[in-house]
Amino acid sequence: MKTSQLRARMFTLARSSEQDDFRMEVQNFLSAMNSYPDRVAKDRDLSFEEHLFSVIASAQRNGGRRNYSRRQP
Fold first, then answer.
1. Count of domains in the chain?
2. For 32-52, what is each residue's pLDDT tens digit?
3. Measuring CA to CA, which residue among 68, 66, 59, 65 is closest to residue 36?
4. Per the domain annotation, does 3 fall within a domain?
5. Are the beta carbons of 31 and 67 closer than 8 angstroms?
6. CB–CB of 48/29 below 8 Å?
7. Is 63 inside any structural domain?
8. What is the pTM of this model?
């Protein structure tokens, strides 16, 4: 494979990875927004930021799969 082709392929893979990371970040944020009302009802001192970090940590432990504490419509 030529150097220019290899660079183009590496750029495409890097861009794809960045897009996947962005999608996961958005999904985690939406999951946190969706599940926050139920969580804050149980723990009034819980900030959204703390809840978001717990959603992100849970997603990382689950290999990127979303973990909703509330049912999705």
1. 1
2. 999 999 999 999 999 999 999
3. 68
4. no
5. yes
6. no
7. yes
8. 0.67
